[in-house]
Specification:
By secondary structure, the chain is mostly helical. The protein has one domain. About 70% of the residues lie in helices and about 0% in strands. It has 19 helices and no strands. The longest helix has 29 residues. It starts with 11 loop residues before the first helix and ends with a helix. About 40% of the residues are buried.
C-alpha cells in the first residue's frame, strides 16, 4: 500500500532536493534537543566564538551539550539506542579510569579525563537524538557545511598564494583544526562523505546545485594538499586507491590516476616537495621516530595498563630526556602508540575492536524496505575512517572529534534508516 503522508508534513524528497523553505519548515518543527545537538556541532566546527571575540562571552559548546541533555527529557522521540559500540566505549572509559589510578603521574591523568568522557557524552546524545532519516540528513548537512566553510576559505587562500607556502602550510580556525596536520585529517574525514552526499542527491537536485555540491570534496582535497602534512597526503593516496581497488588495474583507471598524481605533484609547492625529499632526515621526523621507538619501549615495560592516561609526555621528559630534540616532549604523534602508552595493550585491544566494529557496521549497511539506495554513504564513511587511521599514524589525534563524531554518525546512520523504514512499513500496513 502507498504510504500516507501526514498533512503539512515535509517530505524526504523536498529535503533531499535542498528546498530551503521545506528544510526550514521541518527544522522549526523539531525538538529543543535536536536544535541543541545541531547547535553544538555548529559551535564546535565553525567556532564563530573564536572568529568574533565579541560573542566569546559564554562557553557555547558546553551550554549546547547541556541543553541537548536536558532537551532529551522533553523529546518523546528519544529512545535508548543499542549498539555494540556503546559497550565498547564504556569499557574503554573503565580502562582509562583504572589506568589513571595506577598511572605514574595520576594528577595528569585525572586532569585530562574530560578529553575522553565528554566525547562519550556527546556520542550518546547524538545517537539517541539523531534517530530519523530527516534528522540524520540535517545533522550530516550541518557537519558538511561546517567543514565546507573551512575548506572553501582555505582553498581560496591557497589559490591566492599561488599554490605555495608562506611560513607553513594551511591552518584552520582556532580549536581542533588550527594545526595544519589536524586540519588535513578533518578534510580526509570530510571529503569522502561529501562525495557520497553529492552523488546521493544527484537525482533530486539540478545540475548547477550538483556542481556546487562537488565543490565540497574538491576544496577538501585542495586543503589536504596545501596543509603540508605528509601523513595526510599519504592517507589521501590510500583513500583514492581503496575507493578504486576494483578497477585500479584497468588501463583507463591507471592512466587517469597517473595523470591525477602528476597534476597533484605539479601543484605541490616546492617547499612541500622538499619536505618529502628530506623525510626521515629532518629534525621533525627524527623526533617522531624517537617518540615511536621509546613509546614502544614504554609499552613493553608496562604492557597491561601503560604508563598512565596522558602520561606519555611527562614520562618521556623524565626517562628519555636525552631524546627530547625540541624544547619539551609532545604526545607520540601516533594514535596507536598514544593509546598503548595511555592504557596499555588492554586498552589498545579494545580501541582496535572499536575501529573494526565501526568499519563493519558501515560496510554491512543495508536498508531493507527503503526506496533509496544509501549504500554509498556507508562505503564512503569507511573511506573516511581509513583516512583517519592512516594519517593518525603521524599525528596525535586520538581524543579529537574525528573518531568520536564519526562513530556517532555510523550508529545514527544505521539506527535512523532502520527506524524510519520500519515506521513507513507500519503506515503502509
Amino acid at each position: 500500500m502507498r504510504v500516507i503522508k501526514r498533512r503539512n508534513e515535509v517530505s524526504e524528497e523536498d529535503i533531499y532536493a535542498l528546498k530551503v523553505r521545506a528544510i526550514w519548515k521541518y527544522v522549526k518543527s523539531e525538538s529543543f534537543a535536536f536544535w541543541m545537538i545541531c547547535a553544538y556541532l555548529f559551535f564546535e566546527y565553525v567556532r564563530p566564538q573564536s572568529i568574533y571575540p565579541a560573542i566569546d562571552i559564554l562557553p557555547w559548546t558546553q551550554l549546547t551539550v547541556i541543553g541537548a541533555f536536558l532537551g532529551c527529557f522533553t523529546d518523546k522521540t528519544v529512545r535508548w539506542v543499542s549498539s555494540p559500540l556503546n559497550k565498547l566505549l564504556v569499557i574503554f572509559l573503565f580502562i582509562i579510569l583504572v589506568s589513571s589510578f595506577f598511572a605514574y603521574f595520576p594528577d595528569i591523568s585525572y586532569n585530562n579525563l574530560d578529553k575522553y568522557y565528554l566525547w562519550l557524552v556527546i556520542y550518546f546524545l547524538v545517537i539517541n537524538i539523531v534517530n530519523t532519516r530527516k534528522r540524520f540528513f540535517i545533522f550530516l548537512s550541518i557537519f558538511l557545511i561546517s567543514s565546507f566553510k573551512i575548506s572553501l576559505s582555505l582553498a581560496v587562500t591557497w589559490a591566492q598564494r599561488g599554490f605555495s607556502f608562506t611560513d607553513w602550510g594551511l591552518k584552520g580556525p582556532p580549536g581542533f583544526f588550527e594545526n595544519s596536520g589536524e586540519l588535513a585529517i578533518q578534510m580526509l574525514v570530510f571529503w569522502p562523505i561529501a562525495w557520497a552526499f553529492s552523488s546521493t542527491l544527484r537525482p533530486y537536485v539540478g545540475r548547477r546545485t550538483f556542481n556546487l555540491l562537488l565543490l565540497m570534496p574538491i576544496t577538501a582535497v585542495m586543503v589536504i594538499l596545501g596543509a603540508s602534512s605528509r601523513g595526510a597526503q599519504l592517507a589521501l593516496l590510500v583513500q583514492i586507491l581503496v575507493m578504486n581497488y576494483k578497477s585500479i588495474f584497468k588501463f583507463k583507471v591507471l592512466g587517469a590516476l597517473s595523470i591525477a598524481l602528476f597534476l597533484i605533484w605539479t601543484f605541490l609547492p616546492e617547499e612541500q616537495k622538499d619536505r618529502f625529499e628530506t623525510m626521515g632526515d629532518d629534525q621533525t621526523s627524527q623526533q617522531r621516530l624517537l617518540y615511536w621507538e621509546n613509546g614502544i619501549q614504554m609499552v613493553q615495560e608496562n604492557p597491561v595498563l601503560g604508563v598512565g592516561y596522558f602520561n606519555f609526555s611527562r614520562y618521556f621528559e623524565i626517562y628519555f630526556s636525552d631524546d627530547v630534540l625540541f624544547r619539551k616532549a609532545e604526545l607520540p604523534h601516533n594514535i596507536l602508540i598514544q593509546v598503548a602508552t595511555d592504557v596499555g595493550l588492554t586498552g589498545l585491544f579494545v580501541f582496535c575492536i572499536i575501529l573494526m566494529v565501526a568499519f563493519k557496521k558501515s560496510k554491512d549497511f543495508q536498508v531493507k524496505g527503503c526506496s533509496c539506495d544509501q549504500g554509498l554513504i556507508g562505503r564512503c564513511m569507511n573511506i573516511s575512517l581509513i583516512g583517519f587511521v592512516v594519517a593518525g599514524q603521524f599525528v596525535t589525534v586520538t581524543y579529537y572529534p574525528f573518531l568520536w563524531i564519526h562513530l556517532s554518525l555510523v550508529v545514527s546512520l544505521n539506527n535512523s534508516n532502520i527506524k524510519s523504514c520500519y515506521f513507513n512499513r507500519e503506515l503502509s500496513n
